[in-house]
Amino acid sequence: MTSGFFLYASRYAVLGAGFAGISVAWHLLNDSPKDLRLSVDVYDEIGIGGGASGVSGGLLHPYSPKGKLLWHGAECWRECLELLNVAESSSSSSSSYTSATEKGDTNESFGNFMVRRRGILRPATNAKTLDLMSDNARNCLASCVVETIDNDVAQDLVPNLCLPLNRAFYYPGAMNVNPQRYLQSLFLACQNSAKASLGRQNITLVKKSINDVLELEGEYDAVVICLGSKVDFLPGLTGKLPLRTCRGVITHLQLHESASGSYPEGGPSILSDAWLAVQGPRDLHMGSTWEWQSRNYSSDVSAEEASRALAELLPKASAVYPEIEKWELAGARAGLRAMPPVTSHGSLPLLGCVDQLIGGGSCKFWVFGGLGSRGLLYHGWLGKLMAKAVLSCNEELIPSELTSWKRKTILTISSTLKLKQSLRKLRSHLAEDLVVLLVQPGFRDQGSGCCPNQEPLRCGERW
Question: Which residues cross the membrane (predicted)?
């Protein structure tokens, strides 16, 4: 305990420097009591945005593929916009961004802007869901409106666009975010916040992997695990979280300078069976593939894998934007998503205290994972809730929809342990019975399931 103004010093570890981890770090610093000395260590062996978060498509909006507002979409949208503003403010310092890029944590081939505010266009491609999408559009957020447009209006936005049903849904307030630039800038905002605290706060990026979270138990007040698909590598959590892995490849396409038909400068990105995240008039990303149960964590993509991805995605994209056939493959990146189970509220991330699963102290270990393909939308609001729960050691601050997985997991583990105990007892009894059988005088193996006196066994008798 320190004297005077400060209370106890608190130390927190955040494992993972993707959307979840950096959001939690920011909110730990900014939502903690003002008179609390606080230190946050962010562990990531690759660096900021080195996992699936750093290569995500970056298309940001709060709606499902059928145009319905996602679970707590208003809160998620609001908090994400707030963090974008924080990151953009911190990136205004060119010297700070230069120091970050010198560390090699950005990928220049995947864009150098942070936020491209040109909206998103979703062509209607399924007649069966057209009426439902139109109804959902009328219940949109005022801060992210959905406009139902016809082919003429769509052509003004994106010339040569193909609308199979002469209908599209336009989100003018949606945007395309460069995940690497954003995460770098948000971490810089964390550093700036710590500096402005005049020594009350500290944040450090530790480039190393943690093989067992129990080794951190005596060093930190709490450990927040934000490792995405790599959470399954931790001994205490291996096979215990209801997550499925899915590798997604994103292709980088460019239009040659000599080719006509560049993308309009103010044109929106496109959402369809394959999405197009526009980076510039002759530069865009196309995604994404879905390789379920993959264990390939590398962001690198071989020439063969890139070709397969292009062959899979190009026909889907050209169905709504035929001009894409002129574009050429310029590269590809991949990430391994951690996909959560589907619930009545949709696919929701997994949050909560996991001391019971790991075996640590009270309110010591927490999990924030399973963001799937919506990490950018969810990370702001859920990171805020997670930080508040950790700071107060109160899991009830997290919505029950995000912690319900724990009850099922703990029940399953308990049932499995009971079954194993029952099997051990059964094997023990069988071994005892076998001994009784073998030591009986005059025993002869009759091979017919009968006792030595040739009389059939009666119910309840032991051999």
Answer: 12-29
Phi, psi dihedral angles at 304 (to 5 degrees): -65, -45
List, for residues 331-350, the tens digit of each pLDDT value.
Answer: 999 999 999 999 999 999 99
Average per-residue pLDDT for the chain: 88
Rg (CA), the chain: 28
Q: At what angle do helices 73-91 and 94-101 cross, to 10 degrees?
A: 100
Supply 177's token pair. 């975010």
Q: What are the structural domain ranges in the chain?
A: 1-108+176-243+343-398, 405-463
Q: Which of 263, 270, 266, 285 is nearest to 120 (CA)?
A: 270
Q: Which two tokens stand for residue 70?
A: 């996602």
Residues 6 or more apart whose Cβ sits within 8 Å of residue 7: 1, 33, 35, 36, 37
- Cβ neighbours of residue 363 under 8 Å, at least 6 residues apart? 222, 353, 355, 390, 393, 395
CATH of domain 1-108+176-243+343-398: 3.40.50.720
CB atoms within 10 A of CB 36: 14
Q: Which two structure tokens, joined as six digits, stand for 418? A: 């009971």
